[in-house]
Structures are given as structure tokens and as C-alpha cells.
Amino acid sequence: MATISVDELSHWNRAVTEATEACHDERFPDTLIAAIRTLVPVESVLIGLEQREQAPTLLYETGIPSHYRERIIRRYYSRGYLLDPFCLAVERGLSAGFYHLSEVAPDNFFTSEYYKTYYLAAGAVEDCYYILDLSSEAKVSISLYNGLTTTPFDADQLARLRTLEPMIAHLAHRHWRPRLPTPPSPPHGWRLQDAFLDFGREWLTEREREVCHLLLRGHSAKSSARELAISPETIRMHRKNLYTKLGVSSQAELFALFIDWLSAE
What we know:
Layout (H helix, E strand, L loop, with lengths): L5 H16 L6 H10 L6 E8 L5 E6 L6 H10 L6 H7 L5 E4 H4 L8 H6 L9 E6 L4 E8 L9 H9 L1 H12 L15 H6 L8 H12 L3 H8 L3 H15 L4 H14 L1
Antiparallel strand pairs: 1-2, 1-5, 3-4, 4-5
Helix pairs in contact: 1-2, 10-12, 11-12
């Protein structure tokens, strides 16, 4: 990592002091992001509450261009999050820390229709996240990203962001832990995964639905096979069958069908 200059360190110290003083105050998210920006330029930020077996809740956002707000905020937080690799990783027990999208995404994610729709078409190239524990059932996620018109985070910037994680976690815990709402009790037996698994239930077998969902998330035949402990050839057979049953011939058409289903729910 490149050496932090005296000026940068001075700006960071002043900004993080202001963020510390703003804990428990509505100014806190602004001051926290301002502190991060003293060391790494960040275009857009989303902060969400991730509660186990619950849909994520938007806590704060800044820097999102107006023409992308519909896709990023309303569509994502309605049900688009069901395919998001970070949301799925948190649901599966991702530990607190700093992560780049490439560290948690499936192998074919960057060619998936989800990536094209919710990242590229929404003005983003990449995400990196702070995942911060509030309790055993709740986490705060701080998503940082730069848009298509800016330079993606380089290795030095990612290293800086990773180094800041202990302080970011400390401040976030002080601010949000006392404000943590009591999550509503989900219906008996309900899980986030169950809501997703409803797609295709009328036409597909359980195994075909499992394969379908892995393909939608950006898994290749090989990684789908690893997830389900079956052969890639069997995955391809299930893919062919589910395409036929759903009347589609490509992942793009399958994704469009899924989005239509989300919109109808």
C-alpha cells in the first residue's frame, strides 16, 4: 500500500474525530463517509441494515445519480436483492470485514444478466463492502462504488479501505447498535431463501429450481455442480429441461422472466 501522506493523515484525523463526535447523531453517516473520502475517492454509497431472514433496509445513500435511483433503490430493495451476492453471502453467514465484489461473487457473475442489469445498467462497475456486526442476527453493510464515468478502485485504494475496517466497525457499532430496531417476526417456517425458491414452483422440479436459481445468481455449470454435489453434465441436463419448461432459450430470457415474476409479486 502506498504511504499515506502527512496531509492525508491530518485530514483523516480531523474527519474521524468529527465522525466520533457525531455518533448517535443524524449527521453521523455524512461524517463517516467524509472521513473515508479523505483517503479514498468514493462516488456513491449505500448503507443498509441486513437482518437474518429479512429483506435489507436502506439506512442511508449518497451520490447516486437521479436517473439510476429507480433501478438501484426501489427495484433492488423491493426484491432484486434476492440475487445479490453480498446479500446471499450475509444470509449464509459471511463474517464481518471488508470485501470486494470479486471475493464473494460466483464464478460467472460478471457475465450474468444480474450484473448487467443491477450493476452496469445502474451505472456501477464494482462494489466493495464493509460488513459490520451489530448482533448475532443483524449487520450493517456499507457499499462503496464508483460509476462508469470514474476510475474503478485500484489495489492501493482497496488496501486503504481494508485497513480502515476496524475504525469503521467501531464507529458504526457505537452509532447503530443502540438504534437497532426489533425485527418483525417472520411467518412460521419462512426464510429469505424460501421466497426466492417460489420462482418456477408451478413448472419445475425441486432440483431444476435449485439449478435455475444458481444460474440466475451467476454460477457456471461447474460451480453449480459443486454447490449441489452433482456433475456438470447433470447440471446441463437440468438447465436444458428447465429452459424448455419455462419457454426460454438463454440466461438473458430466463433473467427477464424472473424480473417479470418479481414485478408481479
